[in-house]
Specification:
It is a single chain. The protein folds into two domains: about 40 residues, no CATH class; about 35 residues. The longest helix is centred in the C-terminal third of the chain and has 31 residues. The mean pLDDT is about 90. With about 90 residues, it is mainly alpha-helical. The protein starts with 11 loop residues before the first helix and ends with a helix.
Amino acid sequence: MDGTGDKTFYTVTMARVLADQGRYEEAARIYRYLLDQTPDRSDLRQALEAVTSMLPEPPGHWDDISGLIERWVRLMVRWNALRRLRKCRVQKQ
């Protein structure tokens, strides 16, 4: 269910089945579509809120992510240096 094309199966029942299977993003997509069609349905709004509360938190700010990437790169550089040092040590013995 990619959100494009045929929406024949975009029903409340399908959204519930997907949610029961832990496929919250797909269920939310269906609930959003159904709410676009009938915005006055509070039951759909509540179901969408319940499903979206089960979704993982979005990643933090870019600064947090870029800091993690920088740390990972530094660790990889150190790991490669250690690997080279171990090779030198083995060759000397």
